[in-house]
Design a protein that fits this description.
About 10% of the residues lie in helices and about 50% in strands. By secondary structure, the protein is mostly beta strands. The chain has a single domain (about 1-145, about 155-215), classed as Beta Barrel (Porin), CATH 2.40.160.20. The protein has an eight-stranded antiparallel β-barrel. The radius of gyration is 21 Å and the shape is elongated. The termini are far apart.
C-alpha cells in the first residue's frame, strides 16, 4: 500500500506542476503557443531481462518531461518492475523455490533527439539517475503464501542508459538499468533464506525492451521550431 501511495503522490505532483505551468502560460502574453507545448507525458511498458537468468519479467512506467532545447528533453519517471530471476529444484525435479525482484524506480532523466525536421522519425539517446526501491525475495512453491506481505526492502541509487527511436508519438527503446546488488530475503525477512544452497546475492541490473507513447507536446513531423 505504501508503494502505491508513493507512486500516486509522484504522479499527482507531476500533473499538478504542469497544470500550474499551463495556467501561467495562458496568463503571460509573452509566452507563445510553442512554449505552452513544451510539456509532455509518456506511458510505457516492456519486457525485462535480468543478467542472472533466462526467465525475465515486465515493467511499466509513467514519465513527464520538459523540452529545454529544440532536441533535448529533461524530466522525471516513476516505474514498477517485476522479475523472476531463477528457480531451484528438488531431487525429483519439481520446483522448490523461485527468486523474484520487485523494483520501484523514481528517476530524473534526459533524452537527446536526432530528428531532422520535418521527418516524423527521430532516434534518441538518454541517461537517467535516481532511487530504486528493491525487494529481493525467495518464495517457496509449497506452504502458505500470503499475498501483499510487507517484504524486506532496500534502497539503492542507480542509473539507466538507453537508446531508441520515436515515430510521431510512438516510442521504442532498449534500456539498461544499472542497480547495485542487494541481499536476498525470504518471506519472513530472513537473509539468507535457510532453504537455499546458493546464497550468493543476485544482481539487480537488467535489460529491457520498452514500447510506449506520449501525449502533450508536439508529435515528430509537426513544426518543432520556436
Amino acid at each position: 500500500m505504501k508503494k502505491v501511495q508513493f507512486i500516486l503522490s509522484c504522479i499527482i505532483f507531476l500533473m499538478t506542476s504542469n497544470i500550474a505551468f499551463c495556467q501561467e502560460s495562458h496568463d503571460d502574453e509573452f509566452i507563445d503557443n510553442v512554449q505552452r507545448h513544451r510539456f509532455r507525458y509518456g506511458l510505457n511498458g516492456g519486457l525485462a531481462f535480468p543478467s542472472s537468468s533466462e526467465i525475465g519479467g515486465y515493467e511499466v512506467d509513467f514519465d513527464a518531461r520538459y523540452r529545454v532545447l529544440e532536441k533535448l528533453y529533461v524530466g522525471a519517471r516513476i516505474g514498477i518492475t517485476s522479475i523472476v530471476k531463477d528457480r531451484g529444484t528438488r531431487g525429483d525435479g519439481d520446483i522448490h523455490y523461485f527468486t523474484s525482484s520487485e523494483i520501484i524506480a523514481a528517476l530524473a532523466h534526459s533524452d537527446y533527439y536526432f530528428n531532422v525536421y520535418p521527418s516524423p522519425f527521430s532516434p534518441f539517446a538518454g541517461l537517467g539517475f535516481g532511487l530504486y526501491d528493491i525487494s529481493n525475495i525467495a518464495i517457496r512453491t509449497f506452504g502458505d503464501v500470503v499475498k501483499d506481505r510487507n517484504y524486506a526492502v532496500e534502497y539503492k541509487f542507480g542509473g539507466v542508459i538507453r537508446g531508441g527511436f520515436e515515430y510521431k508519438r510512438l516510442r521504442v527503446a532498449l534500456e539498461y538499468n544499472l542497480i547495485p546488488i542487494t541481499k536476498l530475503y525470504d518471506q519472513d525477512k530472513n537473509s539468507p533464506p535457510t532453504y537455499i544452497k546458493d546464497t550468493t546475492p543476485r544482481p539487480n541490473s537488467y535489460l529491457s525492451l520498452r514500447v510506449g507513447f506520449f501525449i502533450g507536446g508536439r508529435a515528430w513531423g509537426d513544426d518543432h521550431r520556436d
